[in-house]
């Protein structure tokens, strides 16, 4: 081999792809693949559960979601499977949970990112994360043994004070055992607070220092700075955190099963016992056969559909609100 | 009018002048509105700037120049207590505003920042509409109801109105860098501070946008007192009446501290500097 015979190193042309393009291709296939995998799993779950639930859907038709009666073993006639009461219980207990958990979580997250002295932040975060580590059955047992009995006098007092108010009073009806929508909602609130807190905290901590400085330099108080610079920046993320919490609350099974009271019931009275879809499934699955089993799986399908629907709605809301708040980009 | 009211300890219900009125300043030119007396700024135990004494003259532009890291931003932020949120940051000496020490115990930093506004190096509009960016400051200053006139006035003064008047509801983030910076200036002048601090306001901008902002700074001296940090000596020479030259000194313990080397009228500082270090810096012979 002689030096003179060395061919000149080929200069890459502009249309030729460099070696780094391979990495890009692998990366894009990988992300596309994992994305499709998630979709496929979701689809698979939906298809198989719908198939398993089909006998119940077939027997009930649309009544499966509009019927409030749930009677698997009637004395006479066919079994009736209506999901409405349980969907109501799921919705009410989850809403109560958010009503309490969201302000508390956002408050804690703001405190931790904006107010708390630095050395307090680490320990506080640990304590909150520990709350997330408590198994839900423990929350359920605590609810049934401690919280529910302790709340009865308070519920009674609220019934006495607010029960007489027209319309609003109907929320505070007669009190039973203390195992009811309200107690379930409160236990759920405690259970979803850590997840909402930790995500909102992350979101708040991504607000650029420059934005906060801009607000402060205009003479904003800390609260005005939070409203003007922190919230607009984090609205979408906070809604995402709330949706995760809501998903957890709606899907929570054992804790709710223990404290919601176990009644097929649609009532405005928050102090009345009820039931949720997830709780019914876990309570009744063991003793079910045939169409009854199918109906319980059907509850799962309805729950799944509700969660997806709410998430889609939330995204629409976020997009609208952000367009209004941040101004349109185009 | 707020300019004569030196009470920084309480929040006035309305801290902004009515539209159309201006802060008179021509008669009081060359009176110092602020005065630094032996001001040192610390980050924790590190003394970033040591012993600065200089005046800020009313309705004049004061420039701060000097090599990177000599403490210009640090001093500037000390002038409206923007260092307060930085953990460990501390100021010693007196920063006087109309004779009142800004770091006195009963002074409310929020009042200070309403009277002494700030424009930052990187344009930092809020992720809101153009309109809301300007309106935000007005709202937190207690101006209620229709803000359209105030918003228009501020945007006009910031030489931005014609470019944005048809898209006030669009996102401020969709503006160019130079427009964003003028929006930030509009936002600051909307709340009618007496002093505007600017930290390298043109460093992210092209020459045309820079020229616009320099013209604007000149216009603003009718109503405002301006302190500007710049790395661009031509800019300091063009826009400022007074110039402060800072540098970093290494002390016995091998620690670097920012020091004010020379303060004088801009013309004198650039043509006939009193200090050898100033001369080296402005002639480009700096280390
Ligand atoms: N938040 C902070 N915490 C600790 N030290 C800081 C902080 N900000 C600045 N410093 C230090 O203070 C000194 C002065 O910094 P400053 O930002 O005021 O310089 P500058 O003159 O504005 O520089 P430049 O021209 O590069 O902007 C530097 O040594 C810097 O490291
Ligand atoms: Mg700086």
From TrEMBL, chain A:
It is a multi-pass membrane protein. GO terms for biological process: phosphate ion transport. Pfam families: BPD_transp_1. Signal peptide: none annotated. GO terms for cellular component: plasma membrane. It comes from the Bacteria. Residues 87-314 form the ABC transmembrane type-1 domain. Keywords: Cell membrane, Membrane, Phosphate transport, Transmembrane, Transmembrane helix, Transport. GO terms for molecular function: phosphate transmembrane transporter activity. The chain crosses the membrane at residues 26-47, 79-112, 124-148, 154-173, 180-199, 225-246, 253-272, 292-318. It is found in: Cell membrane. InterPro entries: MetI-like, MetI-like_sf, Phosphate_PstC, Phosphate_Transport_Permease. Part of the binding-protein-dependent transport system for phosphate; probably responsible for the translocation of the substrate across the membrane. Belongs to the binding-protein-dependent transport system permease family. CysTW subfamily. This is Phosphate transport system permease protein. It comes from Micromonospora sediminimaris.
TrEMBL record, chain B:
The keyword Transport applies. Pfam families: ABC_tran. The keyword Transport applies. Residues 34-273 form the ABC transporter domain. GO terms for cellular component: membrane. SMART domains: AAA (SM00382). One of its GO terms (biological process) is phosphate ion transmembrane transport. InterPro entries: AAA+_ATPase, ABC_transporter-like_ATP-bd, ABC_transporter-like_CS, P-loop_NTPase, PstB-like. Keywords: ATP-binding, Nucleotide-binding, Translocase, Transport. It comes from the Bacteria. GO terms for molecular function: ATP binding; ATP hydrolysis activity; phosphate transmembrane transporter activity. This is Phosphate import ATP-binding protein PstB. It comes from Micromonospora sediminimaris.
């Amino acid at each position: 081999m002689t030096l003179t015979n060395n061919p000149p190193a080929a200069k890459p042309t502009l249309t030729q792809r460099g070696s780094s393009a391979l990495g890009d291709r692998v990366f894009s296939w990988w992300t596309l693949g994992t994305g499709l995998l998630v979709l496929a799993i979701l689809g698979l779950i939906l298809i198989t559960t719908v198939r398993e639930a089909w006998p119940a859907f077939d027997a009930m038709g649309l009544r499966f979601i509009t019927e409030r009666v749930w009677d698997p073993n009637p004395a006479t006639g066919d079994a009736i499977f209506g999901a409405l009461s349980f969907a109501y219980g799921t919705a009410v207990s989850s809403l109560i949970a958010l009503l309490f958990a969201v302000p508390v979580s956002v408050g804690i997250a703001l405190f931790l990112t904006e107010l708390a002295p630095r050395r307090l932040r680490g320990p506080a975060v640990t304590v909150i994360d520990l709350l997330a580590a408590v198994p839900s059955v423990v929350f359920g047992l605590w609810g049934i043994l401690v919280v529910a009995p302790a709340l009865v006098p308070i519920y009674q007092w609220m019934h006495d004070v607010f029960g007489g108010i027209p319309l609003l009073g109907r929320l505070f009806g007669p009190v039973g055992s203390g195992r009811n929508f309200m107690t379930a909602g409160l236990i759920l609130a405690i259970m979803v607070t850590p997840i909402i807190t930790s995500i909102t905290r992350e979101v708040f901590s991504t607000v650029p220092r420059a934005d906060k400085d801009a607000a402060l330099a205009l003479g904003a108080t800390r609260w005005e700075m939070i409203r003007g610079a922190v919230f607009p920046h984090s609205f979408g993320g906070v809604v995402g955190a709330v949706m995760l919490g809501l998903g957890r609350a709606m899907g929570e099974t054992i804790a709710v099963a223990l404290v919601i009271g176990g009644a097929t019931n649609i009532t405005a009275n928050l102090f009345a016992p009820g039931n949720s879809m997830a709780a019914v499934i876990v309570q009744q699955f063991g003793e079910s056969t045939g169409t009854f089993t199918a109906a319980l799986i059907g509850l799962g399908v309805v729950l799944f559909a509700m969660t997806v629907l709410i998430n889609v709605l939330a995204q629409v809301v976020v997009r609208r609100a952000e367009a209004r708040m941040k101004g349109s980009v185009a | 009018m707020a300019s004569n009211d030196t009470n920084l300890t309480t929040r006035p219900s309305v801290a902004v002048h009515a539209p159309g009125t201006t802060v008179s300043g021509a008669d009081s030119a060359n009176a110092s509105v602020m005065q630094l007396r032996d001001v040192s700024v610390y980050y924790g135990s590190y003394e970033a700037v040591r012993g600065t004494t200089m005046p800020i003259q009313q309705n004049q532009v004061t420039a701060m120049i000097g090599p990177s890291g000599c403490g210009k931003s640090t001093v500037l932020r000390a002038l409206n207590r923007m260092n307060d949120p930085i953990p460990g940051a501390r100021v010693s000496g007196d920063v006087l505003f109309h004779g009142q020490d800004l770091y006195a115990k009963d002074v409310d930093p929020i009042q200070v920042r309403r009277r002494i506004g700030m424009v930052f190096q990187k344009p930092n509009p809020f992720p809101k509409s153009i309109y809301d960016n300007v309106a935000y400051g007005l709202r937190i200053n207690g101006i209620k109801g229709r803000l359209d006139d105030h918003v228009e006035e501020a945007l006009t003064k910031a030489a931005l109105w014609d470019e944005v008047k048809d898209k006030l509801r669009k996102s401020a983030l969709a503006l160019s860098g130079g427009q964003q910076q003028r929006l930030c200036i509009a936002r600051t002048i909307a709340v009618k501070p007496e002093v505007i601090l600017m930290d390298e306001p043109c460093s992210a901008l092209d020459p045309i946008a820079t020229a616009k902002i320099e013209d604007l700074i000149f216009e603003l001296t009718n109503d405002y007192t301006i302190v500007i940090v710049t790395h661009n000596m031509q800019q300091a020479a063009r826009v400022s009446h007074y110039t402060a030259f800072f540098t970093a000194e290494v002390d016995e313990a091998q620690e670097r501290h920012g020091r004010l080397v020379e303060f004088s009228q801009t013309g004198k500082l650039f043509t006939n500097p009193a200090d050898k270090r100033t001369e080296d810096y402005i002639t480009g012979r700096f280390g």
